[in-house]
Amino acid sequence: MKSPITVHRSLPLHEPISTSVTIDALLPRGAVATALANLASAGVVGIRERPHVFAEDLEQIMRMPQGAVQIAPLLPPVQALAERLRRLPETEVLLEADLDIYGQVKTAVAGGG
Fold first, then answer.
1. DSSP designation for 71
2. Is the predicted pLDDT of residue 73 greater than 80, yes or no?
3. Cα 4 from Cα 23, distance rounded (Å)
4. Residue 6 pairs with which residues in a beta bridge?
């Protein structure tokens, strides 16, 4: 069962109401499949574990000189914030579809497909 997240809404500005919804209620049906289909039609897709492969593929497709695409470094403050957010149960629920897509893209990239 999907974990619920709490959504805060205000009817009158002074009376907040909390309700629990699942990620399925936030995404339209077929959203993951649609995202994967869009990615499959892209000329190049990369993953963070292999940024150099993305850079090389993009350079080739765009007919750019080797080394033209620079890989941005991972910034320590951003990494620290990401670690804090990963500890929140709401984060997993909110990113559930993204993590599903990322896992499938990672498998495809690793397999060369």
1. P
2. yes
3. 7
4. 20
93 contacts 1 by C-beta, under 8 angstroms: no
Longest CA span, the chain: 59
Residue type present at position 86: R
Pairs from 53-62 (Cβ < 8 Å, separation ≥ 24): 53/109
Q: 8-67: per-residue pLDDT in tens?
A: 444 445 544 445 555 556 667 788 888 888 888 888 888 888 889 889 999 999 999 999
Rounded CA separation 6/98 (Å): 19
Measure CA 53 to chain center.
Answer: 19
Backbone angles phi, psi at 75, to 5 degrees: -85, 130
Q: Which two tokens stand for residue 63?
A: 């007919």
pTM of the full predicted structure? 0.57
Strand 16-21 versus strand 5-10 pairing type: antiparallel
Answer yes or no: are the C-beta atoms of 6 and 20 closer than 8 Å. Answer: yes
